[in-house]
Amino acid sequence: YTAGSGWDNLLNLGTVDMNTTKRDVNSNRAVADQRSLVDLNYTNQQGDAAPDVFYLFHLDEPSRVTITTNCNPTNFDTKIHLHALPSTGLIVSDDDGGGAGGTSQIIRELCAGDYAVIVEGYQANTGTFCLNVTAQAPTPLAISVVENSGTSCPDANDGAVSWAASGGIGALQYIINEVDVVTATSVGNRPVGPFNIRVIDACGSSANTTVNVVSMDDTPPTALCFAALSIDVIEGESTVITAQDVDNGSSDNCGEIALSVSPSSFSTSDVGLQSAVLTVTDANDNTSTCTCV
Question: Which residue(s) pair with 199 in the sheet?
């Protein structure tokens, strides 16, 4: 009964394995033996005026931990505090979260390591209590793309991508292509092509997603033809024309274009007015046509 009286004398619950519960029944007041009341040597160390009982437990892996006094034979209004070790820094406290009779409950996702729980009474309350510490699997870490705007042109570097992460424990950071580390959930100035986003939580767990940025250019190029083109044909031969012969300054908002003309050759059988169609294709496969006579 002497363990649990302070930071240098923690009552050790041992390792709380996944899907198991460690339980202790104790009291922060003197308890009766066969002949008299026995002082358990618990005194007020911090928080409210009631005596405090200090516990230690260990996690071998990241876990969703439930710490509660909402169990028999708890018979008074409790408060509990969860601390990180070895720093003893306070993580969270609870007064009446247990749901019954002023009992307490903390549910927290924690990394592997050592932790302390302090059980005390609200204000100066004392009594007998049960403490349960249960470990379960944490919410899996996941990452998903929220928006992928693409680029304005195939060779532009103006793509923007945002994402969201779920699950995980503690602060999250993101690594772009295993090089750039960011804490924001969006990046800009992306070119066309795939890139990887890896999210890492405070426990070292990670998840990945690959984002493919594509060009969103759907503006057709401007096709401009000469109104007319005169060519000479020779008996028994074909006269070839090129797209450049017909083109009168076609262009595209994204720059690069490819030209083709049809038909591209004429013979004496074609003497007279004939049409040649110029097709203009941009780098995103948008097309426009014009006709030269």
Answer: 174, 207
User: CA 121, CA 250: separation in Å to the nearest integer?
Assistant: 83
- The predicted pLDDT at position 165 comes to 96
Q: Which whole-number Å values give the CA distances from 110 to 5, 93, 95, 130, in the listed order?
A: 25, 15, 20, 22
Residue 254 is classified by DSSP as T
- The distance from CA 139 to its chain's CA centroid, rounded to whole angstroms, is 12
Terminal Cα-to-Cα distance of the chain (whole angstroms): 105
Q: How far, in Å, CA of 69 to CA of 79, rounded?
A: 9
Angle formed at CA 11 by CA 10 and CA 12, multiple of 5 degrees: 100
Whole-prediction pTM: 0.78
- pLDDT recorded at residue 105: 97
Vertex 203, ends 46 and 55: CA angle to 5°?
30
Coil vs helix vs strand at 189: strand
CA dihedral angle for residue 168, residue 23, residue 94, residue 10, rounded to 10 degrees: -90
Q: What is the DSSP string of 265-293?
A: EE-GGG-S---EEEEEEETTS-EEEEEE-
By CB neighbour count within 10 A (0-12 exposed, 13-18 middle, 19+ buried), where does 175 fall? Answer: middle
Q: Which phi and psi angles does 125 have, rounded to 5°? A: -65, 140
- Residue ranges, the chain, pLDDT below 50: 1, 36
Give the span between the Cα atoms of 142 and 139, in whole angstroms. Answer: 9
54-67 tens-digit pLDDT? 999 999 999 999 99
- Cα angle 83-28-102, degrees, rounded to a multiple of 5: 75
- Helix and strand numbers, DSSP H then E, in the chain: 1, 23
pLDDT at 97: 86
| The pLDDT value given to residue 31 | 65
